[in-house]
Structure prediction request, 117 residues.
Amino acid sequence: MLEPTKKRPTDTVELCFRGPAARKDEAARLLKNLGFETASDSIPWREVFPEYTEEELPAVCLRAARRREGLTQKELAALADIPQAHISMMERGKMPIGVTRAKRLAKALNTGYKVFL
Prediction:
């Protein structure tokens, strides 16, 4: 029987704010005092995972998004109205995702569809 994967606790978060430009420096200073750092200090994910090719990325993104939501392939298949066997093949890179399926998957996984293309 398929089991959902456990969600790992997240130690960090990324914040995004909109507000008056005149108060930007003050907001940055206050957040740094709380232990936050600017996003520009982060490392691009492609540098961290150079082993993935452009062809593998949609499959990796699909599998990661499903696991992030704590869903099994069967549960995702029901939510997206896509056969579970197709979910499996897409996660292994054996079947292209395509725009229509990407939109269904994105809706079920609470993300943008372009990450699967």
